[in-house]
User: What shape does this take?
Amino acid sequence: MARRRGRPQRLPFDNSAATSAAIDGNKRLAWLMAVTRLDACERTGANRSTFAEGLRDLGVRADSSRISRWESGLEPLSPRLVRAYETVSGVEPHTLDTARRRLVRLGHLREVSARGWSPVSERSIDALLTHVAEDRMTGSEWLDLADCITTYEHIYLPEATWQLLADRLLGELVRARGLAAARRYEAAAALIQHRAARPHMSRGVGRIVLEPGAQLVTLALLLLAEDPDDGVRKLVQRLLASPSDSLRGAAEILTARLVTSGHLPPDAPEVEAHVGYSLQRAGDRPRVAILELASYLPDAAFSRVCSVVQSRSTRLALTRVRENAELVDPDLARGVSEHVARQLEEAAGRAPHEPDRMLRTLIRFALFHSQRERRHTATQVLLASPYAGQVSAGVLELTTHPDDQVAGQCWSLLGRMAHTTDADRLVEAVSAEARVPLRARAIATLGATQVPLSDCTVEALSDTARTAPDSPAARAALLSLGLQGFKDRLRDLTPTAPETAQWWVGLGPAIHGN
Assistant: This one.
């Protein structure tokens, strides 16, 4: 017998001096709904009154004045309203709603319930579990299933069903791209907080993280921060000392998430020790996650880790991240985001005296904010908007920027948006990237394209993986071949990188869309 339960209480986002000011999630969601409606009205020739009529047909009380208040961020936005906007706008289910869920989960948006409305049918669990067994779940169905399960405080499923559910969801999560990954992450985050699902999800995470040769473990590992137990701190300590670059990098991101959510104190000795050691080894190119972790340290600890840094550029970066929460100089960050936004607005024929301030803020956050969660939240909002392809096109042009940090952040953002980018232009840009420190980041973007790569590009990736097997570029080449699903090529590379090649052969290609 299942018993309904309310949503669990969320921990508030830690807005200490070590973190930048909290964002207004309601404003971001309102902006996303507004640009989605405007795009739908432009495509269909509708107006605000027609859109309101469509909302009323779905049982939402709507008129032009209400739409104005919703899209100005002046009123709370319920899940029912967001889902109705998706339906009337004609976008895929859970496109806007996934961004809403992320903002709620991170404490940037208050959950608003809609009286008398439920997002799921009580009879839909069996149908969804059938789809799980048949391995044909969509991202939206994973969210629907998570809603079904978490509606109840107690729910019984056979052990084999739980294991299959967890393994299928996590297996899709690690290879999904863009909004496909966002939908699956929100479903997994909801499940790992549920009493009945938690042990099965946690075991599934452990299997993925500890599998030899695994390259994509960050999203799975981050799930442990959604409902951390007493053992997560010891796990972090072990992973930070891992000889595997991918595990160590994922552990740094997990540590930052635990610190910002208040589950790990910023003055934890293991945090300072790892930051100091990493800065010593990194020279003038520390990982972004290390800069973020350093910015959370107490004053005395921050001074100590700065004292071991020999590179002047790294010392400047540490100070900039701590004071401004940006990875480049604020004037440079502003100029780059303005450039991309202006290009987009000019292409759309928008008047130059009506700049979209939220668009500029989102581009700037997605590129240069020092907190990974803020960068990825802004990216997800942009991906859910009608502007995704135009933003990625503008960012692609900036990969030639003479400042390596700017170019590197552009490549990183393209890695999250590459499926919205023109594949031919991306291949040309990757081929032209001659800077060794940026080469691996550029190569990694190729795996996320939805268009199959040409034979010559695949051959070049294979040569890169074969000729320098221990290099970052080789690991990036394997990742791109794996995401593109070139299993024959990966089998040929088994003598060079046996564990990683075999991992990709067993995992399968990238998942795009819904």
